[in-house]
TrEMBL record:
Residues 1-59 form the HTH tetR-type domain. Keywords: DNA-binding. The keyword DNA-binding applies. The lineage of its organism: Bacteria, Bacillati, Actinomycetota, Actinomycetes, Kitasatosporales. It holds the Pfam family TetR_C_14. Coiled coil: none annotated. Residues 202-215 have a biased composition (Basic residues). This is HTH tetR-type domain-containing protein. Transmembrane segments: none annotated. Residues 22-41 bind DNA.
Length: 215
């Protein structure tokens, strides 16, 4: 039912515009009552992203089932591939959603909120495999884990955005693997392993967090 409602919302947003579309119209297009819509979604913005909850669960399952010998960054990269698979499973819908998200601020904000959930999941996982105190004289601030998680998401975003702009065409798996190789080369020595040289003196760091979206 969630996907049926989402498909109805996408059709109406595309034909008559996001602002002009009401929840009642979405429910009618899907052939259900208004109360049925609200059993599945809290708002019409939420209806355009029906799969993020399930995808987050699948990504978490990848992390939970990681073999002990696997590098933590490799595990996170495998986890975020669940997001790309969600988009690649329905290229036409994904491309249209990309167009709508770029045009409608409310949808863009909803997507940003979804991205933040993935970043938090990956940051928590990396924190469990990294002791930043070894690098900063006992300062256990989670900066590097947060930056590494953000880098994985940014690499994914770059490839996803390029794929969407190409109309959902191209070998997205190969492009992702190339992007993730750059992330591993940059951050791989800091997570899952202690440095071989003495820790550098503590430095002042800016903690301001920026918001990321898939595109």
């Amino acid at each position: 039912m969630r996907r049926k409602l989402a498909a109805a919302a996408m059709e109406l947003f595309a034909t008559q515009g996001y602002e002009a579309t009401t929840v009642d119209e979405i429910a009618a297009r899907a052939g259900v009552a208004r109360r049925t819509f609200f059993r599945h979604f809290r708002s019409k913005e939420e209806a355009i992203f029906p799969d993020h909850d399930d995808t987050l669960v699948r990504a978490a399952a990848v992390l939970d089932a990681a073999p002990p010998h696997e590098h933590p960054l490799d595990t996170v990269c495998r986890g975020i591939k669940e997001v790309m698979r969600m988009y690649a499973a329905a290229p036409t819908v994904s491309v249209e959603r990309y167009r709508l998200t770029r045009e409608v601020p409310a949808l863009r904000e909803r997507e940003i909120a979804s991205v933040a959930r993935y970043e938090r999941l990956f940051t928590r996982y990396l924190l469990g495999h990294f002791d930043e105190g070894a690098h900063h004289d006992g300062d256990d601030d989670p900066l590097l884990a947060e930056v590494a998680a953000s880098a994985v998401v940014t690499a994914h975003n770059h490839v996803l955005r390029r794929w969407l702009r190409a109309g959902g065409q191209g070998d997205v798996e190969t492009q992702l693997d190339h992007a993730f190789a750059i992330v591993r080369e940059t951050f791989g020595s800091g997570i899952g392993a202690r440095p071989s040289r003495p820790a550098a003196a503590p430095r002042r760091r800016c903690r301001r967090r920026t918001r990321t979206r898939w595109w």
